[in-house]
Amino acid sequence: MNKIYLILAVCFVLISCDDRAVVVQDSAGKLNDILVIIENDDWNGALGDTIRKEFARPLDGIVREEPMFTLNHVKPAAFKGMLRKSRNYLFVQKADSSGVRIKKDLFANPQIGIIVRGKNNEEISNVITENADDMVAIFNKGEIERKQFLMDKVALNTDRLKERFGIDIIVPRAYRYATYNGEVDNNFFWLRRPIKEGTMDLMFYEVDRNRIKRSDSTVLDIVKVRDSIGAIKILTDGGPFQTEPAYSPFLNESQIDGRFAFETKGTWEIKDMFAAGPFVNYAIYNKEKDNWMIIEGYVSAPSSAQRNYLFEIEAILKSLKFIELQKVSSN
Q1: Domain region containing 57
Q2: Which parts of the chain register pLDDT below 50?
Q3: Quick one: pLDDT at residue 181?
Q4: Taking Cα atoms as reference points, which of 208, 291, 285 lies closest to residue 254?
Q5: Cα dist from 60 to 8, 19, 44, whole Å
């Protein structure tokens, strides 16, 4: 069976900057919600379990389990009126042939729909399992791009990062530049956003190429780097800011702005304190400088759900673009 090609250009979806339900150009929905259209008996049975397993899979790096997407179910007969304006939907259909189809702006705009077909429940479950990663990527990529579009409307001035590291990045104005003990370090930038439950934080710095090697010990190299920086640069009321040693971070190979990057997701802690939370870290290889550009975001909100906060951080970090700085003429 052919895999879905990630035609991500079709995935224009809706997110509000403050994560509330909104309506833009006819379609509507909340952040990271998917409407699942399937018969009640199928939703409550094994086929529904397969859908929940793949689309409500737990996020990496969060100790308290949270789903990647929130799934809302309706039966096909109810999929009409305002429900057809849902921004994201997954439609399960019985048919003579099996496969997956992507529909863009069929009932509303912007909107992405994925239709899964099969002769029976077992065949449909196989189709979903085989194509799940691609379908999840389509929904996620579209959400990221829309979030970046909206954040760019209220973007912070990041000229400091541009001048020091040669990067452009979309950061909302809700963040501010922070310092350690009032000192400014042009080799390390720390940005913070206060939220009701705590803070959201971003870090930017560079390290030599030989500090992170592509090997069986890559994740250990990244942990050593982030712990050595965090222990010095992140101000706490207790011990050093470090990677939680009891949980091994998740490591994947990825790309940022078309460049190779290690993506690491895990849990941070402040040693000897009851303080911890999730982080996402990208080590991007910068071939012009032959070093690693490190960008990281983490959340400190122990009493609240953290999925949407991590989603904002991911959208910020994935917006990074390397630029060529113009040399100033001496004449």
Answers
A1: 8-152
A2: 1-24, 327-331
A3: 56
A4: 285
A5: 22, 21, 26
